[in-house]
Specification:
Elements lengths: L20 H13 L30 H11 L1 H6 L6 H7 L7 E4 L3 H4 L16 H15 L5 E5 L4 H10 L5 E5 L6 H10 L5 E5 L7 H10 L5 E5 L25 E5 L5 H10 L5 E3 L10 H6 L5 E4 L14 E2 L13
Protein name: F-box domain-containing protein
InterPro entries: F-box-like_dom_sf, F-box_dom, Leu-rich_rpt_Cys-con_subtyp, LRR_dom_sf, LRR_FXL15/At3g58940/PEG3-like
Length: about 325
């Protein structure tokens, strides 16, 4: 039986020593073998000089744990696009549930090629949203209920979140980036089905928001530790809050809260802080309704990691350089465009 495979969590750093020599060679073979179909599975190792003097390797006979460790480095999309279809043994390895505990479908060129922030595809995409949704469903099925982390960009829909929620009772972290196809209904249905959620991140998801949504999330996920929200905001268009951020006060176990680009006010923030007494990290960049005065700083004195907008001065109202009051920053990991 293959040993368990550790899937890196979202934001984990790669090992400092990188790939081992054997892993690097195998990774190259995994990426290229199904393209070099005319040469068969007995292609000689790469970079050995005179290949004619080196015995051929049968890559189909590699142990499952070795294959699985390399597949982890490839990522979900590469596996589903062909690396797991080279031969029967590779397909068997690609179906190991441990391999699918963490599914990251955000960092890949085929996702970036779907469309830009204006909904226009710069090139003819090789894979459309429907295909990516189908691939995500396969990944969920292969996890056999063990999915813990799901990260995706642009292609996600309410229907896909429903599929994930119905089959992922162990889900702990969800990251959605620029997902215009996800609504409040789809998001709230997901969190209602996944009470073990500890980490949520929404980056440029315009159809998700509102006090009711955040309050429902807090009630459904009592173990929620991190909620990171990033909206598009401009200093000249700061408007009324509408009170939506008051919903975060229902997330009593939060340790990390990021409200980048929100219209939160000082009074609303005070209510959130009252409801989140365990808060250790707070990011308010691009929150142009916030006045970073002495009273606010005193209120946030117990927070270890704090990012505030600058105190706005009448003489220099357009100079919005961010004031970072901590040595580390919050990494959203989303689109920069």
């Amino acid at each position: 039986m293959a040993s368990p495979v550790r899937r890196p969590g979202y934001g984990d750093r790669p090992p400092q020593d990188g790939l081992r020599a054997d892993d690097g060679e195998l990774l190259t073979i995994v990426c290229c073998c199904f393209i070099r179909s005319g040469e068969g599975m007995d292609a000689p190792p790469i970079g050995t000089g005179d290949d004619s003097q080196v015995p051929a390797r049968d890559w189909s006979e590699l142990p499952l744990d070795a294959l699985a460790s390399v597949f982890v480095k490839l990522g979900a999309i590469e596996i589903l696009m062909g690396a797991g279809l080279v031969c029967r043994s590779w397909l068997h390895a690609a179906k190991l549930p441990d391999l699918w505990r963490s599914v990251d479908m955000a960092r890949h060129k085929v996702v970036d090629d779907i469309f830009d922030i204006f909904g226009v595809s710069p090139v003819e995409p090789k894979i459309n949203c429907d295909v990516l949704c189908a691939m995500a469903r396969v990944a969920v099925d292969r996890s056999r209920g063990q999915l813990e982390v799901f990260v995706a960009k642009r292609f996600v829909t309410d229907q896909l979140l429903e599929y994930i929620g119905d089959r992922s009772p162990a889900l702990k972290a969800v990251v959605l980036v620029s997902c215009c196809g996800v609504s409040n209904q789809g998001f709230t249905q997901l969190v209602a089905r996944c009470p073990l959620l500890e980490d949520l991140m929404l980056v440029f998801c315009p159809k998700i928001g509102g006090r009711d949504v955040y309050e429902a999330t807090g009630r459904a996920c009592p173990q929620l530790k991190r909620f990171r929200l990033k909206k598009r905001a401009f200093c000249f268009s700061a408007g009324k809050s509408g009170g939506e951020v008051l919903g975060f006060a229902a997330m009593h176990e939060l340790r990390t809260l990021a409200l980048a680009g929100s219209a939160v006010t000082n009074d609303e923030l005070a209510s959130v802080l009252d409801g989140c007494p365990r808060l250790e990290s707070l990011d308010l960049r691009d929150c142009f309704n916030i006045v970073a005065d002495d009273a606010l700083r005193a209120r946030c004195a117990g927070i270890e990691s704090l990012v505030l907008p600058p105190l706005r001065l009448e003489v220099d109202d357009e100079d919005y350089e961010y004031e970072t009051l901590c040595s580390r920053d919050v990494d959203f990991g989303g689109d920069s465009d």
